[in-house]
Design goal:
Layout lengths: L1 E7 L2 E7 L26 E3 L2 E2 L13 H4 L2 H29 L4 H4 L8 H13 L20 H4 L11 H30 L7 H30 L9
């Protein structure tokens, strides 16, 4: 199971992913929850909170699931969903501006792959009065666009809810701290050693180890931040 959540518009959305193409509901932000062999059935939660049904069973290289940690497999779906997240955020505002019955004026859906959301829209307009009956729980107003740090947040919307990613986050932070301690301890040991107490070769070795541990801790800190906390997605460069 892969878990990815995205917070937007004052609501929290989440995605549990397999590893393939998704079927997206055409309105609002997204919430999805699937497992390798199990999918949630509920589609509509409440206003601004939607589910994405996603499944990609495969019959090859299944052994990789037992070797590669799940949090590593989550990295690619996270990037894919980040690329879609902001587009969906903008799209729902365009849909609001043109009105639910004129959704086709804001969405260009010419391909066969677009048949499902287009048919869903026609069905919803015909039988649902253009929207789900929210029982007066939703006024139709959208909250302001949040900062990108909140829109693309991963820690509160994914990491804390994903058992694999949360464990990896804690362990990698422990490793980062250990590297920093080794770096400082190595420098302190060399500085505190009396002249002649340790050989020049050992001094160079400890100094090199301190430098390598320091650089590794900095790289690991950056990796942890972009993988588990916040990773901005710039569509101009992707």
């Amino acid at each position: 199971m892969a878990l990815l959540q995205s917070k937007s518009l004052g609501t929290t959305t989440s995605l549990h992913l397999a590893y393939s193409t998704a079927i997206t509901l055409p309105v609002g932000m997204i919430k999805a929850q699937t497992r390798h062999h199990q999918m949630e059935k509920k589609m509509w939660d409440y206003p601004l909170f939607r589910r994405l049904i996603f499944a990609a069973p495969r019959n090859f290289a299944i052994w990789l699931d037992w070797i590669i940690p799940r949090w590593v497999l989550h990295m690619t779906p996270n990037l894919i969903l980040d690329s879609d997240l902001y587009l969906l955020h903008v799209e729902e505002r365009k849909l609001r501006d043109v009105g639910p019955r004129n959704w086709h004026k804001a969405c260009y859906v010419p391909t066969k792959a677009d048949a499902l959301p287009a048919a869903f829209r026609r069905w919803l307009n015909k039988y649902g009065g253009t929207q789900v009956d929210w029982r007066n729980k939703y006024s139709g107003e959208l909250p302001p666009t949040p900062p990108r740090e909140q829109l693309f947040d991963r820690y509160w919307t994914h990491t804390v809810s994903c058992s694999s990613c949360s464990i990896a986050y804690k362990r990698l932070n422990m490793l980062k701290t250990a590297l920093q301690v080794i770096s400082v301890a190595s420098v302190a040991a060399v500085a505190a050693a009396k002249q002649g107490a340790i050989s020049i070769a050992v001094r160079y070795y400890m100094a090199s180890m301190a430098m390598l541990c320091f650089v590794a801790s900095k790289w690991l800190s950056h990796f942890i931040h972009k993988t588990f906390i916040y990773h901005d997605y710039d569509h101009a460069f992707n």
